[in-house]
Design goal:
The chain is α/β, with parallel strands linked by helices. The protein is built from 11 helices and 11 strands. The chain has 3 domains: 1-30, no CATH class; 32-109, no CATH class; 122-248, Rossmann fold (3-Layer(aba) Sandwich), CATH 3.40.50. The chain has helices at residues 3-15, 20-27, 44-48, 61-73, 85-94, 132-144, 161-164, 167-172, 186-191, 214-221, 236-248; strands spanning 33-34, 39-40, 54-55, 78-81, 99-101, 106-109, 122-126, 149-152, 175-180, 198-202, 228-230. Helix 6 (132-144) packs parallel to helix 11 (236-248).
Length: 254
């Protein structure tokens, strides 16, 4: 349940438009709904500011369809990450309004009024085109959480002039998510150019000694650039989620 929906329900009870029993029926499964194979956390948006996000990898299509149906039925936004085409079809059969973003491997459904976007965008920077699926996962996540997001592709350190040509865009962002594989140098460069939070996302892109992203991860963790935070390998969702929450702090309190 969204905070706005709960507030509206309580105001309706106070005004006499909804009786206590009706309100109780709506609230009785608010903490979570037990499906047997999953316990759907309907309280997540009230606690954390965003509804539960579903990690799709290793779940069956049937399980994902049931989970997606339950979340969507409460009017919440839906984001299911790491899904293939078969899983996505099962979700869309159950929730026809949902869309599948194949490159990002995610299913998305936005419902009802969306929150006010922060004044500055989240900027997702992608070192190489091979890193793009992870970058798109980060972009989609930040968008679902109510942010304007811009994407800057293929500006890695092998041709640094490509990044420097976008200096104004770097400075205008509220938070930057930098996605890179190989040796993972790009986030350090970006963090040395801006006064905004920078979140580094290592990817598993690279030849043998890249060690499936471990080399990029270690390089980012040992960066000399201050203000750089690092998430797990290929975790575009984690980078986008962290950036979205940080950026939303810039909205003035009402």
């Amino acid at each position: 349940m969204k905070p706005e929906a709960l507030r509206s329900l309580l105001e309706a009870v106070q005004a006499g438009g909804v009786d206590v029993e009706q309100a109780f029926a709506k609230l009785r499964e608010l903490p979570f709904r037990d499906l047997g194979y999953a316990k759907i956390d309907h309280h997540r948006a009230l606690r954390c500011g965003a509804p539960e996000v579903v990690y799709g990898e290793t779940k069956t299509p049937e399980e994902l369809a049931g989970i997606a149906t339950e979340l969507a039925s409460r009017g919440a936004n839906l984001l299911v990450t790491r899904v293939d085409a078969t899983q996505a079809k099962a979700i869309q059969d159950a929730v026809p309004a949902a869309s599948y973003e194949a490159r990002a491997r995610a299913v998305v459904l936005l419902q009802g009024p969306q929150p006010e976007a922060p004044p500055k965008p989240v900027l997702v920077i992608c070192a190489g085109t091979s890193d793009l699926p992870v970058a798109l996962e980060a972009k989609l996540t930040a968008e679902v959480l109510g942010n304007r997001v811009e994407l800057l592709c293929d500006v890695g350190v092998a041709g640094l002039h490509r990044l420097l040509a976008h200096g104004e865009k770097l400075r205008e962002a509220g938070v930057l998510v930098v996605v890179a594989g190989m040796e993972g140098a790009l986030p350090s460069v970006v963090a040395g150019l801006v006064d905004r939070p920078v979140i580094a996302v290592p990817t598993s892109v690279g030849y043998g000694a890249a060690l499936s992203g471990f080399t990029a991860l270690m390089g980012m963790l040992t960066s000399c650039a201050p203000g750089l935070s690092v998430v797990n390998v290929d975790n575009g969702f984690g980078g986008g989620y962290a950036a979205a929450k940080i950026n939303r702090l810039s909205i003035p309190s009402k």
